[in-house]
Amino acid sequence: MTLTSFGPANLIKRSAETHPLTWRLRDDGEAVWLDEYQAKNGYAAARKAFADMAQDDIVQTVKDAGLKGRGGAGFPTGVKWGLMPKDESINIRYLLCNADEMEPNTWKDRMLMEQLPHLLIEGMLISARALKTYRGYIFLRGEYTTAAKHLTRAVEEAKAAGLLGKNILGSGFDFELFVHTGAGRYICGEETALINSLEGRRANPRSKPPFPAAVGVWGKPTCVNNVETLCNVPAIIADGVEWYKSLAREGSEDMGTKLMGFSGKVKNPGLWELPFGVTARELFEDYAGGMRDGYTLKAWQPGGAGTGFLLPEHLDAQMYAGGIGKVGTRMGTGLAMAVDNTVNMVSLLRNMEQFFSRESCGFCTPCRDGLPWSVKLLMAIEKGEGQPGDIETLLGLVGFLGPGKTFCAHAPGAVEPLGSAIKYFRSEFEAGIAPTSAAVPPLARPIVVGA
């Protein structure tokens, strides 16, 4: 994988004015350590926030900039910050960075942590100042060993420079930051499951309300933000709201830039920082270079395995939440996957649903039993042993595991690609249904949603 800049052939150099997340990256791909980061204006935003801005002003600035969560849900960051209690007597609060990047086909946070660890630390430092949190944790995916090593070194560098610890920048504000390596479960990407895991409990999502802002880590107010989200904070504080908003393309309701990518059998798979509102066609053709010779684009997912499939005709959609929503799915993490003409959709969905079934926490019945059921049906269809009614049963499961039907968003994300695959490629599923004359009694009667 590569990381290039705005220009299709790397013709336009990254700059602080256009690439707030990636302009400091080294051409050799090595990490940017403290001395180099500060030489590239690093921690200037933190110094400004500590010296010139009231804590509430930092929150309002982030809110006015329109920053939204970059983990997939897209909740407004400033609004989330505003949910933290105002009561000054509550002196124990926590800031958690969700770095449990286990969404298949997503590696944007890994790049930031491995190559720009101080950008994340600065973003957390400013956020901690705004939220009055005295301790922070980076909850890191267990397999990200290089990121863990780089973040640990960067934290030690920041401590030695007086940028973490006691009396930061002479302000009287204390903030400790720890790198916590998780055990490797997809469900830890859900913020309350992450909190349970951090506390040493089983990684099950919690009932909400109460929300983490009221009752989070060890019962204290807690704010959880994604890596890329926090990495946007320094640029907003340094350069202002209007500049940040101006980065997005006309028509986009989301502000700033986004790390986007394309994988699959494309000529130039990679990751790029692009303005919200760029079309998927630009991302696919100009940056990813289109499909490799001998392959054609059959379908694509806009942002991880938990987003619905789209067709080539949908490539003109703008890459922001509302733009992708107009064509029937979610933007998710913004890292797209191309499905080529050699891929059987039943086999692809069987593989995906096996993953989601294995990663279910097992807490609620629809997810615990419904996802293995979908895998069993897909395996039979893949072998040509599907029974009449199996496709209807799968569609019934899509309905029963949809939004609002389960304890958290794991199952709705798991069945979204299944429903879209059947919608666009039903004939491939029908091809796996055995002839009626040779069929055995169905595994179960078709589910009818609402019956």
Key attributes of the depicted protein:
3 domains, de novo design (two linked rop proteins), 9 strands, five-stranded mixed beta sheet, four-stranded parallel beta sheet, translocase, 451 residues, metal-binding, alpha/beta, 11% strand, oxidoreductase, Nuo51_FMN-bd, 4 iron, 4 sulfur cluster binding, Ubiquitin-like (UB roll), Rossmann fold
The CATH superfamily of the largest domain bears the name: NADH-ubiquinone oxidoreductase 51kDa subunit
Class per helix and strand makeup: alpha/beta
Summed over residues and divided by their number, the pLDDT gives a mean of 91
Tell me the domain tally. 3
Tally of helical segments: 16
The proportion of residues forming helix, as a percent range, comes to: 25-40%
Euclidean distance between termini CA atoms: 48 Å
Radius of gyration: 23 Å
Q: Would you count the extended β strands for me? A: 9
Strand ordering within the main sheet: 1-7-6-9-8
| The level-1 CATH class of the largest domain | Alpha Beta
What characteristic shape results from the CA principal axes?
globular
Function: NDH-1 shuttles electrons from NADH, via FMN and iron-sulfur (Fe-S) centers, to quinones in the respiratory chain.
EC number: 7.1.1.-
Keywords: 4Fe-4S, Flavoprotein, FMN, Iron, Iron-sulfur, Metal-binding, NAD, Oxidoreductase, Quinone, Translocase
Domain NADH-ubiquinone oxidoreductase 51kDa subunit iron-sulphur binding: 346-391
